[in-house]
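Question (not urgent): is this output format expected?
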Amino acid sequence: MEAPERSGRRLQVLEQQLNPQQLGQLLPAAGQQPEVPHASWRLQLSHTAAQAAQGLQEDSGSCQPDAASREEQLQPPCNMQQQQPKANPVPLLARFGPPCEAVATLHDCWQAAGGRFPAERALGWRLRDSSGRLQQQYSWMTFAQACEVRDALGSGLLAAGIPPGSGLGLYSSNCPHWVLLDAAAAAYSMVSVPLYDSLGPQAVQYIINHAELAAVGCSTAVLPKLLACLQHCPSVRLVVVWEAHAGASPVQQQAQQHSSSSNEALLQHASSSDNSRHPPTSCSSSASGEVHLQAQLPPGSDPKLLQQLPQGVACRLVSLQWLAGCGRQQPQPHVPPMPGDTATICYTSGTTGMPKGAVLSHGNLIANAAGSAALMAQQGAWGPGDTHLSFLPLAHIFERKNLTLALHYGLAIGFYSGDVRRVFEDAAVLRPSLLMAVPRVFNRLHDEVMAEVKQGSALRRRLFQAAYARKAAALEAGDASGGLPLLLERLAFGWVRQRLGGRVRYMTTGASPISAAVLTFLRVCITPAAVEGYGMTEAGCTISIGRPGDTSCGHVGLPLPCCEVALAELPALGYSTADRPHPRGEVCVRGPSVFRGYHRAPQATAQALDSQGWLHTGDVGEWLPGGRLRLIDRKKSLFKLAQGEYVAPERLEAVYARSPLVLQVFVTGDSLQQQPVAVVVPDPAALQRWAAQHSTQHKLQGMLDLCAEPAAVQAVHGSLLQQAAEAGLQGYEAVAGVVLVPQPFSVENGLLTPTQKLRRQVARQRFADAVQAVYCSLPGSRRSEA
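Got this back:
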């Protein structure tokens, strides 16, 4: 297990990084209008693997190259029949099972939920009391009320001049308003384009123009960033705003009421700023300035403090409340989408350059959710009464899939209070039945619990450790029950479960690897049904996931029932499906959940989809016994050393990150050198403790001085070599030297993407001189030409 002293320091640093690097090179020069060519939004997508293999149809907004160009870029995976796991003999799933087999779109999913669970809890939030403290309960909107507000918002969009087929941006942290606008887009055949709330003005400008958004919904927290780029976004005709924090206190609401009259004037100004382009609508608020709806909107839907539009911007700036009132006065029938219509364009993180927009149809998203639902059903019945805590960014495909699953089962969706550092407090109040999270969240839980055990009484510590060792051994032996008496189970781990509300019975983790120690911790202390999955946006989300009852670690499970997986030969990198004992190669995916391609990027599409419809993920994997898939690296991350050996940096980074002195680590190399070098951000607390133990002089130094201290560099290097030895790394995989940097990798300094992935190309350039200095200091080392 990881040392408890670290106490979630790695997660803390990641959570503090919010703003991305400026993307000026992707934008037009000052004063130059960006080119915004027309593109069709109603992209069609075939839904069977057989149709995908024959090639996809072209249209005016196609993101798909012709078959000939695809074949030049990629070759289908070899020996597909021999590679296919035998666990899924049934045809690939594209729909939910009874009674929802007719659900083919996200709109159908909402309609089914509203019809089956009208009076059940749907969307929930935490309110604040008069002193601003969060209440210890959630307030709820039912499915019937949510569908009613959805219709009002969708009708309001049409009345405001946003027709079906338009692009609707969603720029906010997770909240009911985001979900309701997304549902409105689905009901009226619009395309939602999520934007991470951590994105800055230039990244937002690029995505808006590339996706040609006609409207953007955003919170007041990010409104200034949106306003800063609107002058360069000519396609935007409407901006819909809500409060950044839904649970506004009465004190805050009273303060907002004082500006009501000025807000009404602002709305009138915004609505009439360019009448030639946006004809005035008959929709308006009532005489009192309020709009009365049958279903009450979530708090914060009518912000009073809206900023003035920049001069020269010709679009409307309205509140969510105003938009709903407009739709109430002019209700419109639904414009249901077809399964092949585009549901969303999700922009990837852009680790190697400009973000790419993955085009996903309604059929893609339903197929992936259906595949996940088929596995969740093995954990028992799900339905009203069960709850889901929504805190992973809705701009990420992982949480979008979770939302679709929750709608399918009629789960109550409770939103976190806005501060990820308090997510466990939100969980204790909401008491979720299932918890979907990324490893860094579970790492934080692990560190906090282990630190508390260490600081507790000797009796409590011995009880926990004895019960933990016994249950972990039982799980390793394949006994999912854990083999503990119920009383001992409750005494040893009951307090840990209560941190998450005490009702969690299913947990999944994905988006990045989780350590075996943390996954075992979840299974021992929370629920044996804690599994690791693997997926990507282009596959509709999940590709493979661990099965209930499988208590082994170190793999990402079996393929989902909605997709087939094969490995493609990588002879240049030494990976082959003929390798023994485990066939290895690039992971390829095909099925009804796989995307159509990248928006307005045929070359990028050709590099991802081959002539037979296989998505080449860029991940290198190997088949384990039982059809389990294990990921071993990224194809594009590999680098070659002087002796011809290829190094997988992500695998090495996972090993070196176990060092108690390491907060973040980046492994790089040189084709003229025989070993890699590590760029390390030390854990400040751990390095300060080392300094205090080894020298009073070091103790007085700050991080900048410590990182330049040769003794500290040597200590970190020695710790990494110890981890390499314990993990059994090859000699050429052990780092030859270390560069210590005091500033953590972050979105703000351009080294991380908004999804916390390392921008390796940027990191190589940033630390090139320091790495070369390390190589030059090695005995007999040749200076690289790079």
